[in-house]
Design a protein that fits this description.
The complex is a heterodimer of chains A (430) and B (178). By secondary structure, chain A is mainly α. Chain A has helices at 13-16, 28-37, 87-91, 96-103, 111-126, 132-160, 164-185, 207-230, 233-239, 247-252, 258-262, 269-272, 293-317, 335-340, 342-353, 394-398, 402-406, 411-421, 425-429, and strands spanning 46-51, 63-69, 72-79, 194-195, 198-199, 361-369, 372-380, 388-392. Chain B contains 3 helices and 8 strands; from the N terminus they run H-E-E-E-H-E-E-E-E-H-E. The termini of chain B are far apart. The chains are: A mainly alpha (430), B alpha/beta (178).
Chain lengths: 430, 178
């Protein structure tokens, strides 16, 4: 591993500051008082400005409290919670089988990752291993989901920066991937496809052709993105050198995913702490150099290419076999068996009314979602519902980098920075 | 105050009595192939400092668990006093690809642990979340406020004695002026 050691990590001092920190630590009342005191005729023209929660470039319902001097951002504070629906509390009332329907609604751009991490944690507590085919199906679906999620980023990032036609292109390609998801899972989003014990259903007939078609469609479109964005001087001008962060700061702020990698720090859970079967496929970890908005954009674009590389290998390596574990206590019996076997009927009834019991204990599992480390911590008391289910959302943690990235920039650069952090508010607020 | 002093002494005695395996000076157990450390709240900063010097370069997660209705934890090291609130901190070591989890018995009535902000500023939002949803106090936190719920919200909804749907949706017209 060439992990950081040889790299110059840089000084993390900036993010440790309590006083004169770029984080605006005011509550609503203090902010209102500050607004009242604001005198636009002051020499430094300091003022508090509110941005969002309804603003086209705040990606959902992110709200920012900005302290401005003219058009320069001095300090800022992300105000979140507008989408908070208590999903961690809800999870305590759902069985492990129902749990996936809950977590899948968190990161709505990459729902399969939430399902995956929830299922992996449950399986860890149950001490079961899923069949190889289930593992590889999960990998296939997750890599496709990474592609669709990064395509969504390309669309919204382009739109935020004024490349409005990019929005249409990104959405168009994402739709191709979602069409495949719909064929496999029945739904474009919130699939509830990856479940404890395996996946909900085997891949449908003709899936290979569909995936091959995707592998044909997407790469030339990525070339088009390069022409439209990567090699375009206006686009580069808006991103290069904007929102810069060094590796030491990213580490101190617990930033993961493309934000950490953009600083040149090599860290990808798929490579360094492999789960599923990522140690059996060949791919590169894309890293940046400067830790600016352009690096974060380029990393996501090239991660699509790496994911397609992985998908190509999965097509070759996909094993035959069962798509879910044949453990009667965890997996519902096939429909046909219920007519023949009293026991199958009982198992079916028990699983769908009470749910299966999970041994007492606690476990934490993490996967590399398109936004960074997505973790799930479950405490079980031996019952059919999780005693406590916690999701470590990468967007939630990454959002803390915003004030540091925006400090000293213009408000127009602030928009580029928000976009490059790529927060999904469903996961931030949960 | 004598009562609290007594209970403090009890806790100290218990940790002194502890003779099981230790790591970084605190009791250690293993849960599903992951190392779990059990520092007391007073030991937390010291333990995390040692871990940080040892290459655990990132605080991945800080959360809390309310064990009010739990039938009883069997995975705690012997002699450790189980408390209602537990603060769970996850750290990661990138060089060795290792994780470690710290389960801190934070207390029953007024759960309090020291803030990790000065070691890992990335815990700021996570600690605010644990305060917001569980009411765990993080001493020395730079911005000890709610994060997901409105500032004027009452109660801490992820506590086990806070029922689902107990509180009607709160609207606060006097706050909004935007």
């Amino acid at each position: 591993m060439t992990n950081g050691k040889e790299l110059l990590l840089g000084e993390p001092e900036r993010v440790f500051r309590r006083e004169e920190s770029p984080v605006l630590r005011l509550n609503e009342e203090e902010a209102n008082a500050a607004i009242d005191e604001t005198d636009a005729l002051d020499d430094d023209h300091r003022m508090i400005l509110n941005m969002g929660p309804s603003h086209p470039s705040t990606h959902g319902v992110l709200r920012l409290m900005l302290e401005m001097s003219g058009e320069t951002i001095l300090r800022s504070k992300p105000v979140i919670g507008y989408l908070h629906t208590g999903m961690e509390k809800t999870a305590e009332g759902l069985s492990y089988l129902q749990g996936a329907t809950n977590v899948t609604r968190m990161d709505y751009a990459a729902p399969l990752f939430s399902e995956l991490v929830f299922s992996l944690t449950t399986e860890k507590l149950l001490n079961i291993d899923v069949p190889p085919r289930a593992t590889w199906i999960r990998m296939l679906m997750c890599e496709l989901n990474r592609v669709s999620s990064h395509l969504l980023f390309q669309a919204t990032n382009g739109m935020d920066l004024g490349a409005v036609s990019m929005m249409i292109y990104g959405w168009r390609e994402r739709e191709e991937v979602l069409r495949f998801f719909e064929k496999v899972t029945g739904l474009r989003m919130n699939h509830n496809y990856i479940r404890p014990g395996g996946v909900a259903a085997d891949l449908p007939e003709g899936w290979r052709e569909d995936v091959k078609k995707l592998l044909e469609i997407i790469p030339p479109r990525l070339e088009e993105y390069d022409t439209l964005q990567t090699n375009q001087p206006i686009f580069r001008e808006r991103l290069q050198g904007v929102g810069v962060m060094n590796p030491a700061e990213a580490l101190a702020l617990s930033a993961t995913g493309p934000i950490l990698r953009s600083t040149g720090y090599v860290w990808d859970l798929r490579r360094h702490m492999p789960y599923l079967a990522y140690d059996e496929v060949d791919f590169d970890v894309v890293v940046g150099t400067y830790g600016d908005c352009f690096d974060r954009f380029a990393i996501r674009l090239n991660e699509i290419r790496e994911s397609l590389k992985i998908i190509e290998q999965i097509l070759e390596l996909m094993p035959e076999g069962d798509y879910r574990i044949q453990n009667k206590k965890v997996t519902p019996p096939p429909r046909a068996r219920i007519d023949e076997s009293m026991e199958a009927l009982i198992h079916h009834f028990k699983i769908f009314t009470e749910g299966f019991h999970v041994p007492e204990g606690e476990a934490y599992v993490a996967v590399e979602s398109p936004r960074g480390e997505l973790g799930c911590y479950i405490v079980s008391d031996g019952g059919p519902n999780p005693y406590r289910m916690h999701i470590r959302g990468p967007s939630f943690v990454n959002l803390q980098t915003l004030p540091h990235l925006m400090e000293g920039g213009l408000i127009a650069d602030g928009v580029a920075v928000i976009s490059s952090v790529d927060p999904i508010m469903g996961e931030v607020d949960r | 105050m004598t009562e609290t002093e007594e209970s403090n002494e009890e806790v100290e005695e218990k940790t002194e009595e502890y003779s099981g395996p230790t790591s970084y000076g605190v009791p250690v157990t293993e849960s599903h192939d992951q190392v779990v450390l059990h520092p007391a709240p007073a030991q937390l900063l010291e333990t995390v400092t040692l871990l940080k010097e040892d290459g655990f370069c990132m605080a991945i997660d800080v959360t809390a668990v309310d064990y009010l209705t739990h039938p009883g934890r069997k995975d705690l090291p012997e002699g450790l006093n189980p408390e209602r609130f537990e603060v769970v901190v996850s750290l990661i070591n990138h060089d060795q690809g290792k994780r470690v989890r710290l389960r801190v018995q934070a207390g029953t009535d007024n759960p309090t642990v020291p803030s990790l902000f000065d070691l890992f500023p990335g815990t700021e939002a996570m600690e605010r979340e644990a305060w917001d949803l569980f009411g765990v106090v993080f001493e020395g936190h730079p911005d000890h406020s709610r994060i997901l719920l409105p500032d004027n919200w009452e109660g801490h909804p992820l506590r086990k004695d806070h029922e689902v749907g107990r509180i009607p949706v709160q609207f606060s017209p006097e706050v909004g002026r935007h």
